[in-house]
Amino acid sequence: MIFAIDFGTSNSLIACYLNNKVEIIPNERGERLTPTAISFKSDEEVYIGEIAKQQSVIEAANTVLNIKRQLGSGHEFFYNGRSYRPSELAALVLKKLKNHAEKTTGEKVKKIVLSVPAYFNNLQRQDLLHAAYLAGLEVVQLINEPTAAALAYQIEGKKKILVVDFGGGTLDISYILGENLSYKVKAVSGNNHMGGIDYDLKFADFIIEKYLKEFNIDLKQDEIAYQQILNNAERIKKDLSSAEEIDLAIPYISVTEKGQIHIKEKVTRESFKEQTQSLTQSILNTLNKFLDENEITGKDIDCLIFAGGGTRICGIADSIKNAVLKEKSKIKFLSHINQDEVVVYGAAVYAGILEKKIKDIDFYDVTSHSLGILDHHERFVELIPKNTLYPVSADKIFTTVEDNQEEVYIPVCQKDDSSELIYHGELALKNLPHAKGGEVKISVIFNMDKNCVLQIKAVEMDTLSHSHIELEVPFVKRVEKKSERRGQGIKII
Question: Please, what are the domains in the chain?
């Protein structure tokens, strides 16, 4: 059996396709959502899920939240005297889902369809794949989260679909053409640092600033107090999606010379929207830029799918609807599948397709960033443009710069929507034949697989000797700053 996992910033889920329907497997508490939280009590005792999240107040220093945001960063975390990479921490959550699903279903959980933010870059995808490997899982397919959301609805006929997936930590936007259960993604955009947790942080900062002015005490400096405020901010955010007004009450949050301090506030939906308006505007800015760049109007959209629990935050769904309804248009809004579950639901549908339990539904996805290298002048040379269908291969011919240049260093990078270059790694090709600058030809080849994971090859093309130097490098190493070996670079022919 092939299972499906949605590894989320705030919560994670596991599902399968069984008895002609999607089954989302509840955890040991009977809940379908498992908090993506890890708390270290000792080397032998590690809590995962709801218990870990509860520990975040009194054990903030030993609790990991929102680890998905750290994938691909290369950061190290230290707990109980040992270091952990983000992929190692993510693997603990994946293994928890795996083990409980095995107990619940009686089936061995090995092969999975794993969802991933569409806007994740190659480093982040590699880290997530590595986390699955460490958890004893074999990823048969990485599926972009907005694409999974579209698959969940299995929309028939010829439709133009806009998916807005706003989860705990990421924002994805995809424009998809669907025809006879075949889905072709035309364009993607997003923000890997914009999610529901940012609303928690924003509102928590508002409360902290208010009590700093009133009592001259900075609650952010108190780990326990700060985490209590964050947890309550999350609750307020969720409750205000259905209620007009909520009480915020945190007794004994701190103490001063004048006595105990208690937080007691009435929070209205309008006041919450006001305090978080800058975040909502940032979402709209990303959406409007995406629509403008791809020349998409309301008339070009038949269906709008909301995915991710963040789309339930008060004001967000209405703001997005207003953004796409600038012209008179008839758009069908789809959100009847639980927004927290729609991604894993779609991933489970695809698992059912792979198991031949469902008739074939084809999907074709596109790259979320431009990918290329830097030449000897540190100029970006694009090999794979943004919004290119993958799997894909691309190559360009370059040449040496100096006479008798024995080696070249080729920085690999991506360009995001802001035109910022993000450096991922560096190819080194050595022992080049002695020749004048410009005579040694080097082919740089990018191969992107079905999971949008990139491998790079550099080949020296010496046609006289029919020999070549070949180097293949997994896309895993981040380069923090530009190459200082300018004279050992290459230039395009």
Answer: 2-195+278-366 (3.30.420.40), 196-277 (3.90.640.10), 370-492 (2.60.34.10)
